Each structure stands twice: as C-alpha cells, then as structure tokens.
Amino acid sequence: MTAEHTAGTSSTTTFLGMPQPADPLRWGSSFPEAARRELGNDQLRRNLGHATSTIRAKRAKVVGEVPDWEALRDAGSALKTQVMDNLPELLEELERNVTARGGVVHWARDAAEANRIVAGLVRAKGTDEVVKVKSMATQEIGLNEALEAEGIHATETDLAELIVQLADDMPSHILVPAIHRNRAEIREIFLDRMGDAPPDLTDVPRELAMAARAHLRRKFLSAKVAVSGANFGVAETGTLSVVESEGNGRMCLTLPETLITVMGIEKLIPRFTDLEVFLQLLPRSSTGERMNPYTSMWTGVTPGDGPSEFHLVLLDNGRTRVLADEVGRSALHCIRCSACLNVCPVYERVGGHAYGSVYPGPIGAILTPQLTGEPSDLPYASTLCGACYDVCPVKIDIPSILVDLRAREVESGSAGRGWGAAMKAASMVMSDGGRFRRAARLGRVGRVAGGRDGVIARLPGPGAAWTDSRDLPLPPKQTFRDWWAAHEREGADDERSGGDRPGSERPRTGRPGTDAPGTESR
Amino acid sequence: MTTARDEVLARVRAALTSGSAGSTGMSSSAGPSDDGMAADVSREYRESGEHAVGSAAALELLVDRLEDYKAEVHRVSAAEVPTAVARLTAALPSGDDVPERAESAGSGPTPGPDAIAPAADTPRGRVVAPSGLEPEWVAAMSDGGVEVVVDTPEAPLTPSDLDRTAAVVTAARVAIAETGTIVLDAGPDQGRRAISLVPDVHICVVRADQVVQTVPEAVRLLAHHPDRPLTWISGPSATSDIELNRVEGVHGPRTLHVVLVDAASHRTLTWSG
C-alpha cells in the first residue's frame, strides 16, 4: 500500500510487519520454523505476555459473576449444533427475510467470487473508496488486497486493524489484531504512516486513540460505501448484528448510503431470542466486559435510518468442507471470541503470525486445516492441555478435534516430514529389550549434539522429525537401566554387609530420588 | 448453469448427508426437524433475575454497572427531568473540548489537548433532539439558552450538520442492569441511529420502569419489533486495542450521561459529573 510518509522520519523502521500474503489462510513457513523465529523476538513475547495475562484476568472476573455460565454455554453449544443440522433451511429462511426487508442476498462459493461481488457492488456506486468494520470473513478472503487490485481503497476503521494496515502487517489475534504491538511501536507507526498524526504525539494510549479518531472522522462523514462482517445473522427475522467497542462499526453501519456485509454461512442463529444467549457469552469471553460498548442490529433497509441499500454476501469458502466432517464440524460453532488464544500456552509464546493464517491459536489450528483441506502441521501446535476447551463459550472440544486431525494426518501419510519413519524406528527399537538397552545407551552420545544451553535443537536422521517441532533436553549421563543395574548391585552389597550395620534396615533403596541420575532431567 | 446459490446449498446438503450416513448416534437426536427446533435446545439459564422491573435493587445494579464503565449517572424524579436535561446541556463545553479522563492503566505524562480541533463554527451548546422527544424537555433546554435542532424525517440533518452539534438528547427503549446496557430502538423519542452517534456527548433519559435485570428480559421485549434498528450502548465509546488497556472515547460519543428517572421516591438532584 502507499502511505504518506511524514518528512524527516528515518528510513529504518523498527515496526517491520508481516507482509501481505497471497493466501490469508496459508502463508509463511511451517509452524515449527515460524515458531522458532517468533520465539526469538523478545519484544513480541513481552507484549503478548502482558496482553494475554491482562485479558485472562478480566475474563475470569466477569465470567465468575454469572451464576448460570455453564447453562449458557450448554445452550450456546446446542443452538450451534442445531444451526449446523438445519443449515440449508435456515440459510433460505435468512435469505427470504433479508430480501423481504429490502436487502439483496448474494452467494459466494469461494474467496475470489466474494471479492468479485463486493468489487462489482462498489464500482456500481461510482466510488473508489470504502470504509471497513473489522471482520474476520473479509480478512479470510483477502478483500482489501482484491479491492486494491481493482483500484478501490479500503480503509480499516477499527483501531487495531488500522495499526495493522498502516504498518503493512498481518493481524496476529482474532480480537486484537495488533496485540503484538506496544504503545511505543504504535506511536511510531502513526507518526510514520498516518499522514495527519500530530507531530507531538506521545505514546499515551488515549492520545493514540484520539489521533485515530481525528484521522478517520472525515472518512466516516463522507464515505459512500461501507463493508462489514457480521457476528450473528438471525434466520427468523433477517436481522444482522455487529458487536464492537469503538463506534467505528456504528459509523460504517449507519452513515454511508450503501452497506455490504460479508458473512460466513455458519454465522446463523435460528431465532431472534437466541441472541439472549450469545450476547451474554460473547462479550465476557472476548474482551472480558459484561457487555461491549456498542452492538448494532439491523434488518434489511429502514427508510430514513441508515443505508438505503444493503447487500449481504453469504460465503462458503471451505465451510461446507468442514461441515462434511462430523468430528471437525463443531469448529464452525466458533463465535470468534478469541478466549482460546488468550489461555493457550503455545499462542502466548509464539504469537499469531507463527500460525500462518488469519485464524491463529487453538481455534485456528482446527479451523485453518479444515477450511483449506490441505496437509498442515497446525494440529501439532498444541500441548493438548485443554485450557481452550474450558474457556470456549460454545464448548468446542478443540483438543479432541486436534487429536482427530493429527490421526488423519498420520493415516494419510502427510504428517511432518519423516514422522512416519521416526515412529517406525521407535517401534522397532522399543519392541525388543536388547535393542532398547543399546539405543538408550546410544542416546548418551546425544550429549555431544547438545548446545551449551543443555538442549538439542536438531537431531539428524529420522530423529529430525522430533526436533523439527521441539527442542530435546540433553539425555542424562546414565540411563535408567544402567542406574538400576548399579543400584541393584549396591543393594546387594548393603544386604551382604547388613549384619555389621544394625538399625540400617532401610537402605538407600527407599529414597531413589536423591541419587537417581536417570531422573535428573525430569 | 448452476448458480452460486444452488451450488452452496447443494454442498451444504451433501455435507450433512455424508456426515450422518456413517453414524447412528448423533444425527438421530439432533437431526433436522420441520417444527419446533427450540425443543432440542435446553435452556437451563436464567430467563429473568430476582429483581423486579424498575425495582430499587435493579436500579442500584444499573447505576453500579454504568459508573463502572465511566458513564455519568444522574438520578432524578420525573418532575426533575426537564431541569436536569437543561442543566446538562447548558453546561456543555464547546466543540470537542471534552474533559480528559485518566486512562485505566496509564502512566506517563498527562495527556495533551485532544488532537481534534473543535470546528470553528460549532456554537456553544448546540443540541440535536429527535422529533418525538418530550416537548417539556426541549422547552427547558431552549429556555436555558441552548440551541436545540430537531431532526425530522422530512428534514434530516447531514452527517456534517451532526458533527457540528455538541450533544444529543434521547430517551431509551430498555436498560439492562446486570450489564449496564441501554438499548435504543429508533423510536420517535430516540430518533434515527446517526443522531445518537455523531455528536460527542449523549444524554440519555431512562425511566425506572424500563430497567430490567437480565439480558433475556430485554431481548424478549425487543423481540416484539425485531426489525427496528437497534443500538445497544454500554458506556461511552471505548477501545482496548493498545496493550488491552481500556481507553474511553474513540469514534462514538466520548461522554455518556444517563438521566435515570426514579418513579417511586422523590429524589434530590445529585450531580456526579
């Protein structure tokens, strides 16, 4: 993108971002490689650690306030199951109701088709500029880049999306796309790229927010076309809903003459009153607020209030592929709260970019491979600790789906390079006592392969499949078998000399932990 | 030629058929049903709270929640509403000169003046009102020297007009105590959505009998007219996008005054703002 640069800024920018990829669902290197790179970024880890611990505490507090939280989760889960089971009828019902209220419904099989539809609609209004509300669906299809190629500039109006867009970066979190940036970096991005940032801008968050307000206000007041996503689409009434905080959503949904909403086909809910469940689950899980500052709901077109033209683009883009899998299907229940990211020990350390998809974290690890239908190492980007399942407001059993996806990767033979060979080798060695003993002793040679930090970062041969995705602690100096054999000898010696040492009925055998070298690395 | 619509719907149907073909358990219990889909969903959650609509306890809870998210609450009796509205609008600062607030986790220097310069022609205290606003309130504001601009369906203000007003005064449809939420449904006393969005100060009058405790109570009330444009407001505009610290006041109104009308007891005007 072309950004106005303020005079006098240095040519070396410290906020280098993740460049725009060709495919928002598949970019960058493999997860292990990307994770290794990101783990080397201390600033990123500090930013993420601070942000995720803040949001975890907020969420825990406001969820704790709700006496019927588990009942709400049950209802949310059941409603989403019902939506998937009745999806064709509900989609037709939504279409009927939106149309009856003056909206126009479009269907898109994939990203390219959705982008073509939106670009065509914008061009038809004779404008080359649109304002946008933060939306995962439009991120997923790379709408901004597709519009840019058609000569249409899309301005992101959510503060975090604006930061990401100005820095020519990729989002790293579903809810807070610029979570990897701290206030000092954001100040630098604004001064360098915004064009109209006050030169004396400090890094106080309120001042940064006010700079964004001033920058965007003129655009809001003059925009002809807005593009949004949707949090919920009510089949029964044709009502669409956007949940937000800043008011940029309200601006986009209310002021322009034309509104184009891109919605994944799974975002449906059956009835208007089902909102009572999701509007309790989403804000507390997402931002850790009892309710987000603003929620907008609109049904088609309302004469004299808001846009006079409304288009709804219903997007498949791999969702029906996910739906066809009975285990993986529940990934479509996701309401994009991002609670699973904030509690994930893997996400907290590697950040969103390592996942190489606009959907990072635990939900991304199950959604991305299913949406693309291609082999992926993302199902391994988890310790299976289960924290994601515990916080999920619609009870998606992410760990089970991860295991299922791993099993399928292994069955199809596409799991990580050499993984199958390593497992075969391990099976051969472990099935025979003699072979295992020799292999365990051989492992001590591995101490030579270790660095000074006491870990092995890279093993040769089939062992590389293991160290590709994790470091290996140095093997102990003595194997457990050797220790045991030596210990048995000692015990025998003790017994033989037992008569000389009255009272020592409990020899050292009773406390192996103190001198068991085989356990030193546990 | 197959249309995208036909193809997507066919894919959905195929996915559901192939998915349930091999299994016997899941599809039978949660399979498509032509009528009464609601029967499948257990609703063990609270459909209402322990506090009656408009009760003192519900009001206390609402006030607590509103203040927690930095809304300014003024509790008045019904007779005091015109005076309260007149005093709030007469005290409006001009343009965007909104009092600074300490940010939640802020350290560092005191924020400088707002980046936005007030529009030069912003008259002091110009207020927009929806066409159905209580005439008594409008009269009280005018008497207080405030210029009130009424937005009518026949002559709606442009976004730029709205940007040159200092505040908006509206009524509300319903308020949710537990979450500190006020819902507008674009009724005549609330106006179209843009008028409560663009001005920097929103003064919202909420009656005690509009205060429910829980979200389901409010949703069921709104479900009578689901096609009205709805705006749920919980405190002033805010963002948590910078290091997840909450900063109040971004694109929407940076100040939210809630005039809470206590029907039962006569109260003395209290000014928390």
From TrEMBL, chain B:
Biased composition (Low complexity): 15-33
PANTHER family the record matches: LACTATE UTILIZATION PROTEIN C
InterPro entries (UniProt xref): FTHF_cligase-like_sf, LUD_dom, NagB/RpiA_transferase-like
Domain LUD residue range list: 60-261
Species per Swiss-Prot/TrEMBL record: Myceligenerans pegani
Bias (Basic and acidic residues): 41-50
Entry protein name: LUD domain-containing protein
Sequence segments annotated as region (Disordered): 15-52, 91-124
Signal peptide span: none
